[in-house]
Amino acid sequence: MPIVNVQLLEGRTPEQKKAMVKEVTDAIVRTTGAKKEAISIVITDMKKEDYGINGETLA
After folding, report:
1. Cα–Cα distance for residue pair 6/41, rounded to 1 Å
2. Active site residue 14
3. Marked catalytic residue, from 2, 12, 17, 20
4. Cα(7)–Cα(27) distance, integer angstroms
5. End-to-end CA distance of the chain
6. Whole-angstrom Cα distance, residue 14 to residue 5?
C-alpha cells in the first residue's frame, strides 16, 4: 500500500493537483506493480513564510 506525501508551496490550482495525483499514481503503478486502488497520495500546501532556504523564508 504505497503512501506518497507531497509538499508544495501554496498556489497550485485544484486542476494542477488533480493532474499531479493522476501522474504520480500512474508512475507508481508502472514502476512498482501496485494496484491503483491501493495508492494514497497526501498533498500538503505550505505557506511561503513556513518554508526557508539559504537562511531566509520565501515570504
Report:
1. 7
2. no
3. 2
4. 18
5. 36
6. 17
* Per-residue pLDDT in tens (0 to 9) along the chain, 59 residues: 999 999 999 999 999 999 999 999 999 999 999 999 999 999 999 999 999 999 999 98
Count of all residues that appear for the chain in the document = 59
The three-class DSSP label of residue 51 is coil
Please give the grid coordinates belonging to residue 6: 507531497
Contact, 39 vs 4, CB < 8 A?
A: yes
Q: Residue type at 59?
A: A
User: Taking the CA atoms of the chain, what radius of gyration do you get in angstroms?
Assistant: 14
State how far the Cα of 48 lies from the Cα of 36, in Å rounded to an integer.
Answer: 32
Helices (H), 1-59: 14-32
pTM, 2 dp: 0.86
